[in-house]
Amino acid sequence: MSLLSTEPSIDLDGACVDFPIFDAKTRSLKKSVLGRAGGRIGTESKVPIIEALRDISIGLRKGDRVALVGHNGAGKTTILRLMAGIYEPTRGRARVQGKVAPIFDLAVGMDPEISGLDNIIIRGLFLGMTRKEMEARVDDIAEFTELGDYLSMPLRTYSTGMRVRLALGVVTSIDPEILLLDEGIGAVDAEFLAKARGRLNELVERSGILVFASHSDEFLADLCDTAIWMEHGTIKEFGPLREVLHHYKGRDVLA
Amino acid sequence: MDDSTAGRERSAWGDAPGSRSWARAFGDLSAGWRQRQLWGHLGWQDIKQRYRRSVLGPLWISISMGVIALGLGILYSLLFQTDIKTFLPHVAVGLLIWNFISGCILEGSEVFIANEGLIKFLPAPLSLHVYRLVWRQTLFFLHNLVIWAILMIVFPHPLGWSLLLAIPGFALLAINGGWISILSGILATRFRDIPPIIASVVQLAFYMTPIVWSVDILSGNAAVRERAQLVEINPLYHFLEIVRAPLLGQEIVWRSWIVVGVITVVGWGVGLLCMRNYRARVAYWV
Lengths: 255, 286
Fold this sequence. Notes:
The complex is a heterodimer of chains A (255) and B (286). With 255 residues, chain A is an alpha/beta fold. Chain A folds into 2 domains: 55-99 and 176-254, 3-Layer(aba) Sandwich (Rossmann fold); 106-174. Chain A is built from 7 helices and 10 strands. Chain A has helices at 76-84, 116-126, 131-145, 160-173, 190-206, 217-223, 241-249; strands at residues 9-20, 40-42, 49-60, 65-69, 91-97, 100-103, 178-181, 209-213, 226-231, 234-240. Chain A has a 6-stranded mixed beta sheet, with helices on both faces. A 4-stranded antiparallel beta sheet of chain A has the order 2-3-1-5. In chain A, α2 (116-126) packs across α3 (131-145), α2 (116-126) packs across α4 (160-173) and α3 crosses α4. The radius of gyration of chain A is 19 Å and the shape is globular. Chain B has one domain (24-285). Chain B has helices spanning 4-12, 22-34, 36-50, 59-79, 84-109, 111-114, 116-121, 127-154, 166-190, 194-208, 215-219, 225-228, 235-247, 254-278, 282-285. The A-B interface holds A 13, 19-20, 22, 81, 84-90, 93, 95, 100, 102, 104-105, 107-109, 111, 113-114, 121-122, 125-128, 130-131 and B 9, 12-13, 16, 19, 35, 37-38, 41-42, 45, 49, 52, 117-124, 192, 280, 283-285.
């Protein structure tokens, strides 16, 4: 959007994400619950609210490769969606500059009835490419994904791993400036994973910002150098990957 | 842009417009429009999808519509004892325009709910889903136009240059499809009781609007002549007329065009206001 700065950046300033839960009974949620999992459930208003993210302030610049760690429901996916611009903060501010490519749920935006090739085009269009640009990249993606003739088959014939290959192939082919990866890309075989790592690494070197939520320490260590530890919808710690993982796990996992 | 929140945000963060600003609302509409390759493709896909692996494919749209139009046209022309040569085209053309209108309203109320997955997982302008919906309905309408062409061959009508008015007439219908989808889509996403309410109102409106009956026939009956004129207060009647009259070579009533024009402006005003205030909330509500 901005013509002045071409560098990709993510700025969150006191950003909050509050989900109204319309179908929950207010009465049963009268007591504020603060458990191990999930964000805080606020009860001030009539409609119960889940404070999925609270007071998030962070600035990411070009070259940042950030791991997102935390328990289930700590807000990892929500902060990724905030960075993708899917959620606009209910309080506070968020500003994201640069071409964002999210890989959240690999099934979404994929039509099982049409061919892998058509899905590549549609995915690309969703990520802001034109049809021509995508057609020029199809060969490259076909080579990277090693799907070959399968690309002309309907997507429903693909295994989970093949779908992951396809999605990764598209995203890594379009030179995004900000790459947001949510866990769940573990369904590929080891050989392809090595290849994907290589390509993701290359991509992050070449441009922009990577934010990667995963429970795989090994994978995180490979792609990231800093980490955000999310807990109960807030940032508990932000610093070098090894240090944050040490505190999060209680032991130095990367030793 | 003039509320205090937006003002405060501007002062702290340069000139970045806040979530509830006209700039963001219009920005969404124009960003969606720029992605017309995408929604153009998706709209076609929606149609092809429905008839996948069937031998006749999208031709089924025209066939199923044709069967209903023929059946209702014959039934009602027998019931009203009218000339089938004029009444059948009246019913058929009315039905296919109605199909577009009701499609925009009914699917409009589900437009964001149905696209929950896309909205939550891929950043895209909200208007993208609206354009896709109106485009899909337009493609349905164009398929159904075959029925009109066949009827004009079987029952020749005095078509003149006024036929061309069907094009701006339909364009107005499509433009109105935009605000109605935005408005009902946003409301229905927040209040899930809206879609069934809209569905029953639309069903009722089908009978209130002269589609399977006509004002002309009732005007011949002195007892109901005055009551038939009440149809003028039904806005859907005017939407129907601006396309139906040119397609059937009937006299152009400018009053209908004026009514539709006013509704277009007011409707988009309300739709844009809704877009400005609640655009950013939709992702939270779906």
